[in-house]
Structures are given as C-alpha cells and as structure tokens.
Specification:
453 residues, mainly alpha, Rossmann fold, Glutamyl-tRNA Synthetase, domain 3, Arc Repressor Mutant, subunit A, 3-stranded parallel β-sheet, 3-stranded antiparallel β-sheet, 12 strands
Length: 453
C-alpha cells in the first residue's frame, strides 16, 4: 500500500511556522516513500471559516513548494457523509443521542468533574421533541494503546476518556468525527500531527475501529519559544507570508523547519531534496523544538550568499517590484549591485533597502554623521577634483586614486572611507567604495559627492 499523508489545517488565520512544519514533515515523509501528500481544509465550523485564510494557507504552502498533486479536499463538502456515519454508529450502539441541557450538564459537573450523561444507556425507542447532541460511547474499562512512530508505545486508562460530542445540537459534526471520517475516506495511511492531538487520537480510536480503519500515528512535539514555553499568541510568531515579505528565502525556512526536531548527523545545512532521501519519522525528536531567530538569520544569510545574482534579482522583483521601479534603474545595474550586499545582508529586504538607499538624491545625516563629513570639509574640493580627473572610470583606477588621496592628505583609510560611504550610500559602513563608484558610474558618483557633502 502506498504511503498517503495529509495536512489538514483549519482556516482560522495565516499559515504559521508550526503548521508549516507539520505540512513539511507530512510532505517529506510521503515523498521519501514514493507516496502521496494530500491537503484537506477543515472548514466545517462556518463561524471560523474565512476565505482569505484559506487562500493565505494555500499560497504559503505553494510558495514553500509543499504542493499536492491531488485535488484539495474541503471538509464541509463531506458533511452529509459524516452525519450518515453517526447514524450507523447510533444503530450499532456505539453512539447515542444526549438530551441534557447546558444547565443540567453544569450541575452534574459541580458534583462530578467528569460529566456522565444519563442518556448513555437509555433506550430511545420513542421520539423526544427536545434538542439533542450525539455523543460517542467511549469504553469505560481497560485501557487503549497506540504504537506511535515517534513517541513509542503509549497507553491510557479508558476511564480517562469522555463521551465527547460528535454531532452538535445544530446538527453539524465536530472536528473529532469529521477528521477521522475524512482520513478514512482519503485513505490516509499515516497521520502525522502535533502531540497536542494525542488525546484526540485516543478519543477517535472508537471511530477508527468502527470504520475498520487503522492508520499509523506519529505525534510531533510542539514548538516552544526561546523560554522553552509552548508558543502562544503572545509570542507574535510571524506567518510564512510575513517571513516571505521580510525577505527570508523559502530554502532558508525549509532548512530551519527541518532542523526543528529532525536531524541527519550534524548537518546544519540540508535541502528538501536531501531530506527526502534521508528522512525517517524515527529521527524526529521527542523533545519540543525551539524557536531560534538567530539560526534562521544565519541560514538565510547562507542561502543568500550561495544564490546567483540573477536569482536574487528575481526574488527582489517578485517581492518589491514597485519599490524597485520607483528608483528607475535598469535590471543590469541592480544585478551588478547585488553582489556588493549579498554577504552583508541577512534578508532580501536588507538588500533591497541598501540598493534603494544608493539612489536617493539626498540624505538626512545625524549629528555624528555630520561630524564625520565635516572632518574632511576643507579637502572637499581637492577630493572631488581628483575623482573628476579620472578618464578611465573603473574599479582599479578609482582604487589607485583613493590611495593617492590618502597619501597626499596623510589619512588612514577609515578617515576617507567613512565620509565617502556616507555620501555615496547614506551609511558609513558598506562594500568596496571603488567597486560601488564603478558600478553607479562617474557622473552619478560626482553628483552625489557634490550634493551630499
């Protein structure tokens, strides 16, 4: 039987790092076994379903390259089947209609924390004209076990399981039912999800058993923040779209997520294709993965440095087309500038901002920056005159001219380099001055020297 995995997000927001990692591991496990990766949108709760959220999730997965060759399943289209399954479970005494009101349930819980419905064992031969939900009949004695590919053998006492609701009072199925039925309908062989679903897995075992469906289970430890606490909304973790807009490459994010709980030797750098060849679920750690922004920045810098200028240009154009068009410079010129900033930029956004900064007509300098410029104010005319005298405008000649100016004015390189960088790029730190001046040309270099000094 072919391996079939699935990623089944609820459309309640954008795709975040936790969900993306779950999708990634499902995708890689399927591909590493020549299997099939499927996507299901769990949209049965109409109060939470937002079309923009669905679009954002799909766009995020597509951008990461976690695409399915199958038709995307929308759970809401299968509701009639979910309800039909419940009817059969009631007929086989595996589920029951519960007519308790909320007030009755609350009163019962005051006396006993674990709610027990009086309707569990009542025969319902006659029609009762009252609202009801449908609850599953969870086993009350013995225990249940799951052989988890990551966590190992896990056993729970059945007395811990509740008779959870599978059909709400409004007639709609709950996640616990719909998810199990759809996994069966989609022939999912391996359910790989976060260990926060462990309890759900044990609660769903009765449904799986009824369906004569016995998938493999793998529960991944959750991602924790830098204080080793479970991620929450307070942590304000960026969405995949946010990471993209901030200039993180998808290769960096894939590598980052791969190393959050899975490893192959001591390799820090690993591509998705390499991971597919080497991936096993058993290598996923049982311990929580940790958010580490520094590691992501390191990886992004690595992938930026190891990308071609043409690739970086295409990413820039895709992300920041309007910003680049506003500076009105040719792709050829931008292509030449990219290598100056690749090794000193953590994100594509930084490269964009540094390039745009170069083409600003004037800069607003701080008091400290003004002091740097004023240090050579008396030599301004001489320095500009020397650069103006260059006939063959190239990196080597410009470099030689800088050496001459340093020697003539008895300056250290920093004393000349910082003012020139401020004038040319708006920053006292940056790439080779002679290379930058060569790329932007003599006329523009001299114009900036005259205007900004």
């Amino acid at each position: 039987m072919s391996v079939i995995t699935r990623f089944a997000p609820s459309p309640t927001g954008s795709l975040h790092i936790g969900g993306a990692r779950t999708a990634l591991f499902n995708y890689i496990y399927a591909k590493s076994n020549n299997g099939i990766f499927k996507i299901r949108i769990e949209d049965t709760d109409k109060s939470r379903n937002i079309k923009t959220s669905v679009d954002s999730i799909i766009d995020g997965l597509n951008w990461l390259g976690l695409k399915t060759n199958e038709k995307i399943i929308f759970q809401s289209k299968n509701i009639s089947n979910h309800v039909e399954i419940v009817k059969k479970m009631i007929d086989e005494n595996l589920a029951y209609r519960c007519f308790h009101t909320e007030e009755e349930i609350n009163e019962k819980r005051k006396k006993n924390k674990k709610f027990k419905s009086e309707w569990r064992d009542k025969k319902q031969n006659k029609i009762i004209n009252k609202e009801f939900c449908v609850r599953i009949k969870s086993p009350t004695g013995g225990n249940s076990s799951v052989k988890d590919k990551i966590q190992g053998l896990i056993t729970v006492d059945n007395s811990e399981l509740d008779d959870f609701i599978i059909i709400r009072k409004d007639g709609t199925p709950t996640f616990l039912l719909s998810s199990a039925v759809d996994d069966h309908e989609m022939s999912v062989t391996d359910i790989i999800r976060g260990d926060d679903h462990m309890t759900n897995t044990f609660r769903q075992l009765q449904i799986f058993k009824f369906l004569n469906y016995f998938p493999n289970f793998s529960h991944m430890s959750l991602i924790h923040n830098e204080n080793n606490q479970k991620l929450s909304k307070r942590d304000k973790v960026l969405s995949i779209e946010d990471y993209k807009q901030k200039g993180f490459l998808k290769e960096s994010l894939i590598n980052y997520m791969l190393r959050m709980g899975w490893s192959y030797g001591n390799n820090e750098i690993i591509s998705i294709n390499e991971a597919i060849k080497k991936f096993t679920l058993e290598k996923i750690s049982k311990s929580p993965a940790m958010i580490d922004e520094r590691k992501l920045i390191y990886l992004n810098n690595y992938y930026i440095n190891n990308s071609s200028e043409q690739f970086i240009l295409e990413v820039l154009q895709n992300l920041y087309k309007t910003d680049l068009s506003n500076i009105n410079q040719s792709n050829e010129l931008i292509l030449k500038l990219i290598p100056l900033y690749q090794d000193r930029s953590s994100t594509i956004l930084e490269i964009k901002e540094k390039i745009i900064q170069i083409f600003k007509k004037t800069y607003i300098f701080s008091n400290d920056q003004k002091k740097i410029l004023d240090s050579l104010k008396d030599n301004k005319s001489f320095i500009i005159g020397e650069f103006s005298s260059i006939v063959d405008w190239n990196e080597y000649i410009i470099g030689e001219k800088i050496k001459y100016i340093l020697d003539k004015l008895e300056l250290k390189f920093k004393q000349l380099g910082q003012p020139l960088r401020l004038i040319l790029s708006g920053s006292k730190d940056g790439p080779s001055i002679s290379k930058l001046m060569e790329i932007i040309g003599k006329n523009f270099s001299l114009k900036k020297l005259n205007q900004n000094w």
